[in-house]
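Supplementary Methods, section 5.1.

A reviewer requested that the exact input to the structure prediction be made available. We therefore reproduce it here, unchanged from the version used in the analyses.
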Amino acid sequence: MLIRLSQAKDLAALCQIYNQGIRSGAATFESREREIAELQSWLESSEHYPVLVLELQGQVQGFAALSAYRSRDCYRGIAEFSIYLHSEIQGKGYGLPLLQALLQKALQLGFWKVLSRIFTFNSASRFLCQKAGFREVGVYEKHAQLNGKWLDVVIVEYLISANQSGEI
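The structure derived from this sequence is encoded token-by-token as follows.
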């Protein structure tokens, strides 16, 4: 297993894995599959918001990414995260080291908090976040619709300073 920063050569695999997540209906409110060119911006912003890939036997099988939380300066130390694994390796223990590597990268970049929103029914992602040290903050009810159905999301956060030094 190799976890590394993404490169342009990874875009096709990232697109395939992301589109699997879209099709699953369990990972994102996105409903339109993406083209490779649409993901190019992920690499362009990777200096401050990196995308890490998980490689198994030379093949990209997953990725975890940081993205901007809000545009106001007071929030620049907070990042949102997403993590996607190829369907064939889900539930096999690869998500935790990938998410831990992303949190380590967030620490190196000076972020103090990483957060995300997870569908309430996505127990695998909720469990992964719990194992990585995230706490569930609350639930946004009727956050948005996917395929005409209102869905709730759980807000999860990881306070880097609390998990790295014991201080908040």
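Residues 69 and 75 are 7 Å apart (CA to CA). These observations are discussed further in the main text.
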